[in-house]
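Let's practice the habit of predicting before peeking. Look at the sequence and jot down your guess about where helices and strands might fall. Then scroll down.
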Amino acid sequence: MRSLLVSAAALCLLLAAGRAVAHSSYEETGIAGIHAWVKVGRKTCMVDHFHDGSGTGPTRIMAERAAIRAWAEFTAWEYGSAWGRYAMAASKKATCSREGGSSWRCAVEARPCRPF
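Done guessing? Here is the structure:
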């Protein structure tokens, strides 16, 4: 019985380790390492590398949300989901303008950051 419990515990550890490796590889693509990083409070940010995103919508808010979504999707695709959180980004800038009177176009740019 004891050896069965030890075997079950070992199996659980192996599965947990495999999940941790799979999770960390999902979070990071490895490409972020080509840029210099700096600690900013409780996050790590790229020193001088910016990403941008653009979007359109019937209202300014909807266009800005579309631009942020574009920024986040591309950044997460390139570096991993930990880097693709616009709320964590630094040096944010957004510009919006009306297009033809009936829609809005927004562009955002920011330096990608990740927790810790």
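How did you do? The two ends are 43 Å apart (CA to CA).
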